[in-house]
Amino acid sequence: MADRDPLISQKSFVEEIDYNEIHQIQVVGKGSFGVVWKAHWRGNYVAVKHIESEAEKKAFAIEVRQLSRVSHKNIVKLYGACTQNPQNRVCLVMEYAEGGSLYNVLHSRPFPKYTAGHAMNWALQCAHGVAYLHNMKPSVIHRDLKPPNLLLISGGTMLKICDFGTACDKKTYMTNNKGSAAWMAPEVFQSSNYTEKCDVYSWGIILWEVLSRRKPFEDKATAYTIMWAVYSGQRPPLLEDCPRPIENLYTR
């Protein structure tokens, strides 16, 4: 007997959306997971995240399960999933973030202007979303916090955490090497047992990044060299003229 589809098995967690109700407009993102479209559904703009390979279905099943548990202003909303249609398409229908990712704001050229106040506000909103996840029962550990997974809406004033394909419940035995090297806590890439503190480490790197407008470990050519540097105790450099209370937030 064939294995049960890991995403379809999650359908009890979320609304099943009729794929024919979705009117796709344009591609707004691509990655190893597949393609994200801006689309129109029931009078609203939404993001439709397509699964394009069998290998990604497990990660999407995790995303469905985790996003179906959460409801917070700083976490992207999941409306439902499309799993039953003649086209055999499998996708998630989520809140659309018209401002794109925080990463693009930080590093695209020409540089969009923002102030230290904007930077601290983004970091604070991210912290609020992470604190909500960690206070759930069981708590949820994101494991891949980074600016590409932080989306902006309302003219860049509201931040939303997205991409829960690597998130896990704390009760899960957590030794898998997930996340992206520049923002990854050393205990994660060492495959050690880790806790919510790995998200706190990633948040500290994000805070440094929004204040400095520099990519963390940008002088390192590969993920391996980044991980070796972090394992050896290297961290992003201290910022000149940064108030000590803020410096303490990203160095603790």
UniProtKB/TrEMBL annotation:
Entries under Pfam families matching the protein: PK_Tyr_Ser-Thr
GO terms, biological process: positive regulation of signal transduction
Record domain Protein kinase: where: 22-252
Binding site for ATP: K49
SUPFAM superfamilies cross-referenced by the UniProt entry: Protein kinase-like (PK-like) (SSF56112)
Family matches, as InterPro entries: Kinase-like_dom_sf, Prot_kinase_dom, Protein_kinase_ATP_BS, Ser-Thr/Tyr_kinase_cat_dom, Ser/Thr_kinase_AS
Any GO molecular function: enzyme binding
Keyword line: ATP-binding, Kinase, Nucleotide-binding, Serine/threonine-protein kinase, Transferase
Domain of life of the organism encoding this protein: Eukaryota
Coiled coil start-end: none
Record-stated family: Belongs to the protein kinase superfamily. STE Ser/Thr protein kinase family. MAP kinase kinase kinase subfamily.
Protein name (Swiss-Prot/TrEMBL): Protein kinase domain-containing protein
Origin species: Ranatra chinensis
